[in-house]
Amino acid sequence: MLDLSKSDLVVAVIGTGTMGRGIAQICAQAGLTCLLFDSREGAVNEAIAAIDKALESLVSKGRIKADDKQGVLGHLKPINSLDQTKGAGIAIEAIAEDLEAKRSLFRELEKHLSADAVLATNTSSLSVTEVAAGCSMPARVAGLHFFNPPPLMKLVEVIGGLRSDPAVVEALTGFSTRIGKRPVVAADTPGFVVNHAGRAYGPEALRIVAQGVASPREVDILMKEAAGFRMGPFELLDLVGGDVAHAVMVSIFEQYFGEPMYQPSAQMAVRVAGGLLGRKSKQGFYSYDAAQSAIPPTVAVAVQPAPASAWVADEDGGRELAEWLNEAGVKVQLGGQPAASGPCFVTPLGEDASNAAVRLKLEPARTVAVDMLGRFGGRRTLMKTPLTRSEVVGAAAAALAAGTVPVTVINDSPGFVVQRLLAMIVNIGTRIAELRIATPADIDTAVELGLNYPKGPLALGDMLGAARVLAVLDGMHAITLDPKYRATAWLRRRARLGVSLHTPD
Questions:
Q1: How far apart are CA 348 and CA 356, in angstroms?
Q2: Can you tell me the mean pLDDT for 33-58?
Q3: Largest CB tally within 10 Å, which of 11, 17, 257, 490?
Q4: How high is the pLDDT of residue 297?
């Protein structure tokens, strides 16, 4: 196999759309000669013009010098036929996500490239093994999955197919580092790491809204202000595009033969059919026009004076909640028989407020629940039963807000909003580990860099406590009987043993 660390390495990029031109820019900025080919006439020139504009922006911001820009442009070499790729040591395809189109391209490239050249596919959804099956030398084919936009996104997934030479995977890992990217090696499975891990955030948020637990805006605000995510799930769905997001949901669900954990949203299918695609259609879960921001300002919860006293269940998070209420001037009774009046606060993990009220023999009309999973301070969640009186909700919200902390009131749900989303993120992360798709450390790196989550799923589980995450999932599963919420064996074993989710077998 050709040495991809050679100083005179030539890269051929086939397909010069958004991804192809971004990959070409990265390679050229790394000092590599980059051949650009596209079957559409004029596409290569358009790509070079776009790269020129992107580089000029970097010059104007002082990130590169004008001379450096010219040097980068000098590394870009347009070609008008595939036979001109014969000097390339690696060819990276970035054409449409069509299996036969990719196979046909690789068969043609094999006629022109040397026998030791590497063929890399930028596929995000197809099997690398299937792509390589159309080649006479499948051992030299592997996946090199960049993320959009390639010049800004640090992550690259390196995927070996079932017949890929391990040396090719190793060479592509080194090549990724050479062009300034952080490689993560993944097995050839549906969604690889990042798209697989993303099956928790959007799909579970869609289910929460479909069940009337909270609105899209409330879910987004909770995930940003309470859980520390940069974007809420509905903002992210609008950014990616409803059609793209839904297609990925359906694809991974089908490729895993109907695994309930990845169930798509019927709600999303209807929105796509109606053209509510997000930013690209100017209307999604939010409206996008020149006069509006993506998310309207937060509406404060209408509250009344805090109660003089309250009862708090002496369970997980109860003591911390009692301290919050004491600081707000509320006299708290922790555990024991509740007084005849005043709100009754519960702090369930994976349980809804109704079930907690019945289990603890509380009056449902006086019962409210607070999400204490992460002891969230930026925004707090108050959950009511279907029978909770409005004056109880108002008084409880006033006590919980303590004058400065925003509170979101939601309808009854096993797992609140944040618990459900975080627990599913952790659970699917442990499933990726359990299936040996990537190492635990690489799973976290891929999710942090590819999805911009504040923590990778295994690190998140360790932070929250694996036993507590397991309690959330078991609680949701017990109430809903939905196999979607069954915990993985990876999570259950480590939670029971009291060790990190990064612990290998």
A1: 7
A2: 96
A3: 11
A4: 47
CA–CA gap between residue 206 and residue 250 (Å, rounded): 14
The token pair at 192 is 């690889």
Whether 458 and 425 have beta carbons less than 8 Å apart is answered as no
In this prediction the pTM is: 0.93
Confirm if 13 and 34 have CB atoms less than 8 A apart: yes
**Residue 81 Cα distances to 16, 111, 266, 388, angstroms:** 14, 12, 45, 71
Contact 159, 168 (CB under 8 A): no
Show the DSSP H helices in 13-164 as ranges: 18-29, 43-60, 66-74, 99-110, 128-132
Contact 141, 113 (CB under 8 A): no
- Is the predicted pLDDT of residue 371 greater than 80, yes or no? yes
Q: Summarize pLDDT for 247-302 with one digit per residue, the tens.
A: 999 999 999 999 999 999 999 999 999 999 999 999 999 999 865 554 554 444 45
Contact predicate 205/229, CB 8 Å: no
| Phi/psi at 246 (5° precision) | -65, -40
CB of 13 closer than 8 Å to CB of 35? yes
Residue with tokens 């970035």: 94
CA angle, 473 then 221 then 300, to 5°: 120
Q: Given CA atoms 300, 303, 308, 313 in this order, what sign does their dihedral have?
A: negative
Residue type for position 300: A
Q: Report d(CA 358, CA 364) in Å as an integer.
A: 8
Could you write out the DSSP letters of every residue in 442-495? HHHHHHHHHH--SS-HHHHHHHH-HHHHHHHHHHHHHHH--GGGPPPHHHHHHH
Mean of pLDDT values over 158-163: 97
Give the Å distances, CA to CA, from 36 to 33, 47, 117, 275, 326.
Answer: 10, 9, 17, 35, 67
Q: What is the mean pLDDT of the chain?
A: 94
Residues annotated catalytic, as ranges? 124, 145, 157, 195
Structure tokens at 338: 């509740």
Distance CA 273, CA 234 (A): 17
Q: What H or E segment, with its residue span, contains residue 310?
A: strand 309-312
